[in-house]
Amino acid sequence: MPFSRVLTATLGALLLTGAVACAPPDRESAGAQTESGVNAAEATSAEDFGGMEGLVEAAKAEGELNVIALPPDWANYGAIIKAFSDKYGITVNSAQPDASSQDEINAANQQKGRSSAPDVFDLGQSVALAYTSMFAPYKVETFDDIPAAFKDADGTWVNDYGGYMSIGFDSSKVPPVTSVNDLLKPEYQGKVALNGDPTQAGAAFSGVLMVALSQGGSVDDIAPGVEFFRKLKEAGNFLPVDPTPATIESGQTPVVIDWNYTNAAETKKLPSWTVVVPPEFPVAGYYYQAINKDAPHPAAARLWQEFLYSDEGQNLFAQGGVRPVRADNMAADGTLDPTVAAALPVVDGPVTVPTPAQTEAASQYLAQNWAAAVG
């Protein structure tokens, strides 16, 4: 089931903004030897622990896992964290759920050497590719089942789930949004929010790309997207507020450009919330999963990866309305839950997914021009 064309609202999430607090001094854990003598911080597969049983034993001995920037409603992470903790008896410390991808990296740098540092990352493409030197290569047991286009060959990073860029709006407060250009109309004055800063957050980056395509731009020319947001600000329609469930439900941000699964999560709480994936300009994107090479709980970090890419973890992602990276192969072998598979978004026709090189070039343009356009 490749990315295909849609307007279906699915379940899912909230994007990320925030800073990181100071942490207490570290207790020694990173790089500890397991009972079998394996250095957990250097393990590149479960086989380095003697198999999954050895990895589970080492992770349980650590007893904790630090995650960051994982709101409970984002891609079903609340259920995923609970399932992992219940299955292995490991305490999951979830810090700064409203943090951005860049904040995750900042936290790892600021808390390096401390017991509170993030063990794992879940990052947008542009941030992930800029910091691969901070990741520890690791291949999960299902690594060969993940398409080559969605992973680093050495397991330094692996895509975990994806979705489509969308426009969500409260039909009780604004006229129906039928196209990107509608957002320039007077009826949307002070009402259009973008989820995050596109120089720091994957959702915002993809939102600008979607707008660029609607304005005649391309994945290699994101400038029309930046120009559109400049016009949006000049018209008084751009709302410089990072949307959250609270701002949506209160009516503060009645129009939000964000991932379809993030926007669609609000339909459960706000019946008037409507989600549209512009069919002419579908933009898809995957998030990047990686292990912090300085993880204070290196065995637990690796067990977390194994869980996320297992059939159980992938089906839990799908329940959150996102497309798990193993979806196609799992559907073929009958391990993808058919109920959740039927609810996944479908878009017929060409879908824009930027390559790493295109993302890097677009990110450089945004870094040089975004602030001036909307500042």
Automatic annotation (TrEMBL):
Location of region: Disordered: 95-117
Domain of life: Bacteria
Keyword Ribonucleoprotein attached: no
Keyword terms of this UniProt record: Signal
Extent of the signal sequence: 1-23
UniProt biased composition (Polar residues): 95-114
Name recorded for this polypeptide: Extracellular solute-binding protein
Species of provenance: Mycolicibacterium iranicum (Mycobacterium iranicum)
Upper taxonomic lineage: Bacteria, Bacillati, Actinomycetota, Actinomycetes, Mycobacteriales
